[in-house]
Design brief:
341 residues, mainly alpha, Ferritin, 12 helices, 0% strand, binds fe (ii) ion
Length: 341
């Protein structure tokens, strides 16, 4: 299901409020609220990057409310997916620290976490800037949940085996979130830069894009370090996770569109994709997401997966073994440019 399909219809925000559980009451305004002067300064030094997008310059009155609202919905969904990345990468950092992984892995991961904090802020601020009329129900915030089970605990009586299991867990998480998720986000952000007709969504997409290029690369570099240190059982579990993750990404990225639907139809990502020349505030259609997804898997991701010893074609052929989970206990794997569920 695409983000737009899930967007509450005009006038139904009251219904969204009714469905808001205890988990989802924190709204986006609280997430980006000011705290203390000193924390603001530390945060700015660490997280803000020049040139910080000029949110003040956005001309609300220039665009119809329906367009701003639809764009704000995609940006706030993106903000929550980015928040999910902070949650996931900090958990992976914790697991790799317990597994006594090399500091170079932790150093690179530490940068990923600050980058994702920046992305949460950029995406939440642009959503709030574009749609100042949005109430707390529209901007309600989910508690982040990782699309995998928690890391195994260290058994002090069997540290070698515990560390092996932790490396296996971290490999599956990095495969899903970085090698797949981040590498998929990159061309989606490239497309957002191209289709955006306003300088603010373009500046926000460009800033995030610079980081995501690094994140996808980190995924494959980390796998090159971790995979050779796995045993056959953990390697098989990683290959199985690849099939499960591909099935999840296909569902969360492509909605109802499948690769067969795109055969023979050119999907062009260009500044003039709208035949009526309507403005675009940083949104892509389900078809555009799907076209980017399938092309990126084939051209960029599968060769890299083969290089780290995985079999992407087998995983792709077997992805039908992993239907959408009936329970909503765990979200499915999704790229940062899509809502997590
Ligand atoms: Fe991100
Ligand atoms: Fe990222």
């Amino acid at each position: 299901m695409s983000d737009l399909e899930k967007e509450p219809a005009n006038g139904s925000v009251g219904a969204a409020r009714e469905h808001a559980t205890k988990e989802t009451v924190a709204d986006a305004r609280r997430i980006v609220a000011a705290t203390t002067k000193k924390l603001a300064s530390m945060h700015k030094n660490q997280v803000h990057r020049d040139p910080w997008p000029d949110f003040e310059a956005f001309e609300v009155a220039r665009y119809p409310v329906a367009l701003r609202r639809a764009a704000a919905w995609q940006w706030i969904s993106r903000a929550q997916a980015e928040h999910g990345s902070v949650h996931q990468f900090s958990a992976v950092t914790h697991a790799l620290t317990e597994a006594r992984a090399p500091m170079e892995l932790l150093g690179a991961l530490a940068r990923l976490i600050t980058d994702e904090v920046r992305h949460v802020e950029v995406c939440a601020r642009i959503a709030l800037t574009m749609y100042p009329e949005g109430n707390d129900a529209f901007f309600q915030w989910r508690t982040p949940r990782a699309p995998w089970s928690d890391a195994p605990r260290i058994d002090p009586n069997d540290r070698e085996a515990s560390e092996l299991r932790l490396r296996g867990w971290a490999s599956r998480a990095i495969l899903t979130a970085c090698a797949l998720g981040e590498t998929l986000s990159e061309p989606m952000l490239e497309a957002l830069v191209v289709v955006s007709t306003d300088p603010l969504p373009r500046a926000c997409s460009e800033q995030i894009l610079k980081d995501e290029r690094f994140h996808g690369r980190f995924g494959f570099e980390a796998l090159a370090v971790l995979v050779p240190a796995l045993d056959e059982t953990e390697k098989n579990a990683l290959q199985e996770q690849l099939g499960r993750a591909l099935a999840g990404f296909e569902r969360t990225t492509c909605g109802k569109t499948r690769v067969e639907d795109l055969v023979g139809h050119e999907v062009e990502i260009a500044p003039s994709t709208d035949p009526e020349g309507r403005p675009n505030l940083g949104t892509l259609s389900e078809r555009e997401f799907a076209a980017i997804f399938y092309a990126t898997l084939e051209q960029r991701i599968f060769p890299e997966l083969e290089a780290v010893g995985l079999d992407p074609m087998r995983a792709w052929a077997e992805r039908g073994k992993y239907p959408a989970p009936a329970s909503k206990q765990r979200p499915e794997a999704s790229a940062e440019t899509r809502a997590a569920e």
